[in-house]
Amino acid sequence: MADDLITMDDLTNEQIEALLKDAEKLLPAAKGDVYLPLLEGKLLGNMFFEPSTRTRMSFETAMKRLGGNVVNLGALASSSVTKGETLFDTMKMVDGYCDVAVLRHPRQGAAQYAADACDIPILNGGDGAGHHPTQTLLDLFTIKQAHGKLNLNVVMVGDLRYGRTVHSLSHALSRFGANLTFIAPPALSMPDEIIEDLKASGANITVSEDLVSNLPSADVIYMTRIQKERFPDEDEYLKVAGIYKLSRKDLKDVKESMIIMHPLPRVDEIHPNVDNTPHAAYFDQAFNGVVARMALLCFLFGVDISKEVGK
Q1: What is the CATH number of domain 8-132+287-308?
Q2: 55, 134, 136, 165: which is the annotated catalytic residue?
Q3: Chain centroid to CA 82
Q4: How many CB atoms lie within 10 A of CB 183?
Q5: Quick one: pLDDT band at residue 227, thresholds 50, 70, 90?
Q6: N or C: which end of the chain has fewer CB within 10 A?
Q7: Residue 25 annotated to the active site
Q8: Which of 222, 214, 244 is nearest to 156 (CA)?
Q9: What angle do CA 127, 130, 136 make, to 5 degrees?
């Protein structure tokens, strides 16, 4: 089996490209049109210490579409966490039960900590304001499906300080030559250390607070929710809540091929009147979590998709 996936640095560009190709081949299975029991007998542990809908359900769907099975941590209130069990001990227990585990945890660095404790592969399902590499895989797949390439003009909007999705995605896109524009109020700007890392790797970075002026040149608009739960002070949250809102009237001068993405859930940053425009890609993006994670699970278990699909 392959190793852990804690950040996108755990994958080479060649591996990312191969995963995106495998994901496309697995689309019929992800949709339920064919059944590919490639992981029959394998067990995934879903260890979610923070709320989740898409990541948890798409991992469970992916594993079951491939013939495997899933055990869930369930509500924290009904687990031994309430008795004071440490993350180390919880993950050591899962290490004995499962073949692979996904961890979401509010503490940045928790996924690496769990990986150090376990022999089975650990997949980072989001660690605080750190990274979310499996979300990045589905985001890359969504962009590639829409545009056929990744070296595009990508505009990231909203909570760039606490948004682990944009942290991971910006690093990955820069590796494939994308031009990145970061739009946020100063309190939520992309962390300086991330911008410095991106520039050091040769990425073309633009920083702005103005969404509207950057819409016409964008190939991808990546909206994010202002995350109330990440703010230590509610007054600080209220100062920036609702600062960026995208509606149909804002799209009159955009490229015909431009897509709008969002890791979801949304609050009010994308008006529902955008949903039925050809630019709205966020619900397809959510579905792509299944197919991208199917490809990743097969990769971890050493399944050669090119040999298995089409038998």
Answers
A1: 3.40.50.1370
A2: 55
A3: 28
A4: 26
A5: low
A6: C
A7: no
A8: 222
A9: 90
Q: Do the beta carbons of residue 155 and residue 218 sit within 8 Å?
A: yes
Name which of 103, 102, 97, 146 is nearest 128 in CA terms: 103
* Rounded distance between C-alpha atoms, residue 58 and residue 9, angstroms: 23
Residue 124's DSSP bridge partners are 103
Q: Are the C-beta atoms of residues 99 and 120 closer than 8 Å to each other?
A: yes
| Region at 169 (left for phi over 0; alpha for psi -120 to 50; beta for the rest) | alpha
Does 266 qualify as catalytic in the annotation? no
> Is CATH 3.40.50.1370 what the domain over 133-285 is classified as, yes or no?
yes
Is 132 labeled as catalytic in the residue annotation?
yes
Give the model confidence (pLDDT) of 143-178 as tens digits: 999 999 999 999 999 989 888 889 989 999 999 999
Catalytic pick among 56, 105, 132, 279: 132
Q: Would residue 54 show up in a list of annotated catalytic residues for this protein?
A: yes
pLDDT category, 237, cuts 50, 70, 90? low
What single string gives the DSSP state of each residue in 163-220? -HHHHHHHHHHHHTT-EEEEE--GGGPPPHHHHHHHHHTT-EEEEES-SGGGSTT-SE
Q: Where are the alpha helices (DSSP H) in 84-163?
A: 87-97, 110-117, 133-147
**Annotated catalytic residue within 42, 104, 105, 225:** 104
Residue type, 233: D
Q: Cα–chain-centroid distance for residue 159?
A: 15
pLDDT digits (tens, 9 = 90+) for 255-295: 999 999 999 888 889 999 999 999 999 999 999 999 999 99
CA distance 197 to 38: 39
- Hey, where are the domains in the chain? 8-132+287-308, 133-285
42 is catalytic: no
Q: What is the spatial distance between Cα 239 and Cα 109, in angstroms, rounded to a whole number? A: 29
Place of tokens 């964008």: 218
Mean pLDDT across the stretch 10-20? Answer: 95
